[in-house]
C-alpha cells in the first residue's frame, strides 16, 4: 500500500483534537454477507426491453452487461484493494456543525496538506452517484507530480457529503438540503481546519453546493465547476450557438426527455426507492451502473472486453462502477443520498426551491468552468456568464459527467491554471 503519510498535517496545518484519524475497514463478516447475497440474487431472463436487438440501452440497462458485472463483483472484485487506495491518503473524521443552532454530525474527509506556506486550499465536492472515489485518480496524479509535499501547491480536502459514504446522515427530524450541506462544508474548512480562504471544485450536485458557497460564504473566494446547467438569458439569440453548443443542447434534451426518470423518482418517492435499493446489491448495481454507462464519455474508457454476444464493454469502467456501488452498499447509504433531488426538480407544479441560477457567483468572487462535451447538460458559455464572474473557461474535447474520474489529468491542469489566474489578480 502507498504511504498514507504524504500530505499529513504538521507545521503549517495543525488539526484540533476533535479531528480524528480514520481508516476504511469494512468487516469481513459484512463482505461475506455481500458475497452470499450476490450468489443468491437472480438475473431475470431476456426480454425486448433489456436486450434490444440494436444493442442500445434506449430502454434501460442491458441484461448481459449486468450479468457480467455481477459475475465480476462476485468472483474477481477486491474490495480490500479499494480500501487500500482510500487509506493511502490521510483520512479523518470530525464533528461538524450543520446549522447555527449547534447541531453536529461526523464528517469523514480526505485531508492532504501541503507544507508550502503559499498553498491554496481546495475543497472537492462529489455528486450522486459519486463519492470520494472520484478524486483518487486526481490525487494520485498530484502525489506523483509533487512527491515532496512541501512543493504541493494545494491543500486538498475531499469530504464525503452528509448522507454519503463514511459521513453521518442528516438528522431525521426535518428536511435537509443543499444549503445545509454548504453550511457544513464551510464549517469544516473554516472552523474545523482553519483554512480561512478556499476554492471549491465540484460537478453534479457538488457544483450546486459550490455555487451556494460562492454566493453566501465570505471565505469561499473562488469556484471551479465542471457542471453548471442554467437557463438562457432573456432574448438570447440562438442563431449564435456554436456547433459544439448545439450538440451540447441536444445532449441536454436527451437527458431531460429520456434519461431523467430516475431523478424524478428520487425527488418524488425517495423513501420507496431507498428501501428497494437497500435490499439487494444487484438491484443497486443496476440502478447506479446505468448512470455511469450513460453519463461517461465512451472515449474516456477503452471498450476492451467482449461479452458472449460479441458486444464490447470497458472493463476499467466496470471496475469503477462496482467500486462505487460497493461503497454505497457497504456503508448502507443509498437511501440517505437522494435528498438533493427534491431541490432540483419542480414537483406539484412548483418551481424547484434551489437551482444554480438562484445562487449567482459574482465579483469579487471568481468562477472557472471546465466544459465537457459528454456532460448530461452541457451549457453554453454565454448562459453561464449571466450568473458568474467567469474568469476561466475551458472547452475540453473528451469527457463526461464524471470528469474527475474520466479525465483526471485534464482536471489537474485546469485546477492549476485556474489557481494561477487567482494568484495573478
UniProtKB/TrEMBL annotation:
<dbReference type="Pfam" id="PF06441">
    <property type="entry name" value="EHN"/>
</dbReference>
<dbReference type="InterPro" id="IPR029058">
    <property type="entry name" value="AB_hydrolase_fold"/>
</dbReference>
<keyword id="KW-0378">Hydrolase</keyword>
<dbReference type="GO" id="GO:0004301">
    <property type="term" value="F:epoxide hydrolase activity"/>
</dbReference>
<dbReference type="InterPro" id="IPR016292">
    <property type="entry name" value="Epoxide_hydrolase"/>
</dbReference>
<dbReference type="GO" id="GO:0097176">
    <property type="term" value="P:epoxide metabolic process"/>
</dbReference>
<comment type="similarity">
    <text>Belongs to the peptidase S33 family.</text>
</comment>
<feature type="domain" description="Epoxide hydrolase N-terminal">
    <location>
        <begin position="20"/>
        <end position="135"/>
    </location>
</feature>
<feature type="active site" description="Nucleophile">
    <location>
        <position position="204"/>
    </location>
</feature>
<dbReference type="InterPro" id="IPR010497">
    <property type="entry name" value="Epoxide_hydro_N"/>
</dbReference>
<protein>
    <submittedName>
        <fullName>Hydrolase</fullName>
    </submittedName>
</protein>
<feature type="active site" description="Proton acceptor">
    <location>
        <position position="401"/>
    </location>
</feature>
<feature type="active site" description="Proton donor">
    <location>
        <position position="341"/>
    </location>
</feature>
<dbReference type="InterPro" id="IPR000639">
    <property type="entry name" value="Epox_hydrolase-like"/>
</dbReference>
